[in-house]
Design brief:
- This protein is of the alpha/beta class.
- The chain is about 20% helix and about 20% strand.
- It contains three helices and nine strands; from the N terminus they run E-E-E-E-E-H-E-H-E-H-E-E.
- It has a seven-stranded mixed β-sheet with strand order 2-3-6-4-7-8-9, with helices on both faces. The protein has a two-stranded antiparallel sheet with strand order 1-5.
- The two termini are about 30 Å apart.
Length: about 190
């Protein structure tokens, strides 16, 4: 796993949201934020010995940090734990932290930082499995998903998902049963 990355001491940006879930004692959390706190490029959860981990790639980050989970991250790392892995990494197609995904296409600033794609590729290079789970993006943002997906496939990674929506996008894990099976993500 990557070396410990502290969160910035004063996060200026508030992503909103009301649900904050403390990490259990057996789980160590880390996160990588932009200096302004508006973007979160990566989130890690480890338990037991470090080593094998799953990379989940979602739509955009919300409230989870090095100290707390949001419902999506909690569900994902628990899945990785049930898979027998020792850790979980989270990245997103859009790395801007916001809880209301319906307004992502209305922001007056970029929904993606320059550090996002390089971070995703670095995380994938050390992951045992890469799981696409970003759900449906607004049509004006879909090119960001295509860029990430193409970059991962060009680098030789096989992508998995928990099923696909009618438009072909990978399903979001929060809206599925916890035991939903993994399948190869094919577009």
């Amino acid at each position: 796993m990557s070396p410990s990355l502290p969160s910035p001491p004063n996060i200026i940006h508030s992503p909103g949201g009301k649900i904050s879930i403390p990490l259990p004692a057996h789980v160590l959390g880390r996160a990588k934020f932009s200096k302004c706190g508006r973007y979160r490029q990566a989130l890690w959860r480890t338990w037991g010995q470090t080593g094998r981990y799953a990379l989940f790639i979602g739509m955009n980050p919300s409230t989870a940090s090095h100290l707390i989970d949001d419902p999506t991250c909690l569900r994902e790392w628990k899945r990785a734990e049930r898979m027998g892995l020792c850790g979980y990494a989270k990245a997103n197609i859009l790395d801007v932290r916001i809880t209301d995904s319906k307004i992502l296409h209305q922001l007056d600033y970029p929904p993606v930082s320059r550090a996002n794609l390089p971070t995703i590729l670095k995380l994938a290079s050390k992951a045992d499995i890469v799981i696409a789970c970003w759900g449906r993006l607004h049509s004006s943002l879909a090119h960001h998903a295509e860029r990430v997906e193409m970059s991962l496939r060009d680098a030789g990674y096989t992508l998995y998902c928990l099923g696909q929506n009618g438009d072909g996008s990978p399903k979001h894990p929060l809206y599925l049963r916890a035991d939903a099976g993994l399948v190869e993500y094919i577009r």
